[in-house]
Write a structure and sequence with these properties.
mainly beta, Beta-galactosidase, Chain A, domain 5, ten-stranded antiparallel sheet, 4 helices, 7% helix, 42% strand
């Protein structure tokens, strides 16, 4: 498999800018034209950020190695994938993100991605702990992994048709006297297609067991999100996180128009599955365009729906979030056995598939697939927070 290395700190390899196309690999007249551009952004808070743009003749997307290999933006046939964050000058260099500022909410200073990983130390709300010697430590919202630059980045292209493209990156979350975990990610797409796969392998590099959590914050705004858009999922249980979510439990799966001042509503779901797999969908009001996520429940058993339909300039967005756990504070998740433990050298693999659906027939096909799974049982919709899903005050 031909490979182009863009960054390898262990061998002092660094490519500041490059354009890669089929011609680089001696491919003549591939089925679909494609190109990959690597650049280093300049100016403002994005200064020094690496950006890899993948154009495939179908789905296009941007990867940000500087921000934990997150997927920043995407598009399909002129329709944007992602959302318009109040962070207008992104992608933000992690050097400008103080994770512990604002009571542990500093993570929000750089939040504007299509898909951003939350973890690995924590992927929920901030929390404070007191150590045996009396020191108090604060753990911030959604952890560190999204603000750690990759130390290895490469592009792989399959020799044989359909010439699948893979962007590989290695990101280490480690420190002295603490966990050392390497995330090896492979983001793969077939040129001309309307779907991609994100496959992450988290490996314990230390000589003792370590714990980890991972949540994939997949964020969508217009044109897929609008008044009348629907969230479709084969749920077995739906639980409102708090009193604010209770207010919307009767229509948790339907979206309203942009509403300045809207306070977020969060719902925890247990998804039904078929052959170990499940999927969810966000479709527009007319049912003509949608996005779907495919997950394996053995890898990512928990699912969270985040509704944040504020004003268009304030972040009109919804998050579809498969994870190893629910985004409560880590101590609560530990109590309920939702923290992954890795023995020395062991790994945890997590994979999600993102698919764009274009046309009513395409949307109906996925809706029927979800219905087939849902036919296993009617969802139980709780009227308020209940354990083990959410903390009951």
């Amino acid at each position: 498999m031909p490979t182009v290395i863009l960054n390898d700190t262990s061998h002092d390899v660094w490519v500041d800018s490059a354009t890669i196309s089929p011609e680089n690999f001696g491919m003549e007249a591939p089925p679909h034209a494609w190109s990959i551009r690597k650049q280093t952004l300049r100016g403002g808070r994005r200064d020094g950020v690496d950006l890899i743009t993948v154009e495939t003749g179908g789905l296009s997307f941007c990867v940000v190695p500087s921000r934990g290999m997150g997927l920043w933006k995407g598009a399909y046939r002129g329709r944007d994938l992602g959302w318009k964050s109040p962070v207008k000058d992104g992608p933000v260099n992690p050097a400008h993100v103080n994770l512990l500022s604002n009571g542990g909410l500093g993570w929000l200073d750089g939040f504007d991605e299509l898909i951003v990983r939350c973890g690995l130390e924590n992927n929920g709300s901030p929390y404070a702990e007191t150590s045996p010697d009396g020191r108090q430590t604060l753990t911030g919202l959604h952890g560190k992994i999204a603000n750690i630059p990759a130390h290895y980045v490469a592009v792989h292209v399959e020799n044989n048709a359909p010439h699948a493209i893979t962007i590989e990156g290695h990101v280490d979350e480690s420190h002295l006297f603490g966990p050392a975990i390497r995330m090896t990610t492979k983001i793969t797409i077939v040129p001309g297609s309307k779907s991609l796969t994100v496959r992450d392998e988290f490996t314990n590099l230390s000589d003792q067991p370590v714990e980890m959590q991972i949540l994939y914050h997949c964020n969508f705004g217009p044109p897929y999100l609008e008044a009348g858009s629907r969230f479709v999922a084969p749920a077995s249980v739906v639980v409102p996180r708090d009193a604010r979510a209770v207010e919307g439990i009767g229509h948790y799966d339907v979206y309203g128009p942009p509403e300045p001042g809207f306070s977020e509503q969060v719902y925890f779901l247990d998804l039904q599955e078929r052959d170990g797999k499940s999927l969810v969908m966000l479709r527009d009001a007319a049912g003509e365009n949608a996005v779907a996520l495919r997950v394996s429940k053995s890898q990512l058993p928990c699912f969270t729906l985040w509704k944040c339909t504020g004003g268009l300039n304030d972040g009109y967005v919804t998050g579809l979030e498969p994870a190893t756990n629910y985004p409560n504070a880590r101590p609560f998740e530990q109590t309920h056995g939702r923290v992954v433990t890795l023995k020395p050298g062991d790994s945890h693999v997590a994979e999600i598939g993102l698919e764009v659906l274009a046309g009513a027939q395409d949307v109906a096909r996925i809706e029927q697939e979800i219905k087939t799974i849902q036919d296993q049982g009617t969802p139980r919709i709780e009227k308020g927070p209940v354990e083990p899903f959410a903390k009951v005050e």
